[in-house]
Fold this protein.
Amino acid sequence: MTQRYSRLQSVEEKRNVKKTALYVFLTIVLIILLFVVGIPLFGKFTLFISSLRGGSKPIVTNEGTPPAPPKFNYFAPFTNQSTASISGTIEPGATVKLIFDGNAEETLGDKNGVFNFNLNLSDGDNTFSATAVDPSGNISQKSGDYDITLDTKPPALTISTPSDGSSFFGSNQKQETIQGNTDTGSQITVNDRIVSVDDSGNFQYTTTLNDGANTFTIKSTDQAGNTTEKDITLNFTP
């Protein structure tokens, strides 16, 4: 009887040890899951609840850095038109403040940061610059100073030699050079052929005359697009 009791007691002890080992194992697994899954999940849940409570409030970031200055796209520095459209880019959502000939204008960049201004120009130089202001009120450094020159006056054009209607004879006079002067920076064409112009506005064009009347159209175009034309006719008899 005593031996049977001892045997039952031994079996029961083994069961208790197995149960204890299982409980310890499960506890360790639960602790690991708590640290790996539970705590991060709880944190996300807390953030979700917090966002629901303050969902109507804008997210505020630390905006202590000024935006970059506005960048202007290419524009013609000389024009004969009284209005000019200039465009460029800034930080999306920022405002461009333009100083044009001492007067201030402003516009808001679109979602891509693109902005545009239409300027009413005065004769001569028109100067402008700009700054950008972001939604937090930070102001960028000033952009460079830019100029657009309004020029509506046609360029001067003088044909110094030969004179219109001149006549030439024989093989020694079959080749002739047209010489003249125009405003510095202007382009010269003779019968639509571009001719070199020096720093003083002087030009020359050498051509071979055909029998009879030879008509030449000399055209000067300045940087603003204004033009002056003169025609001369040279007569050649072999």
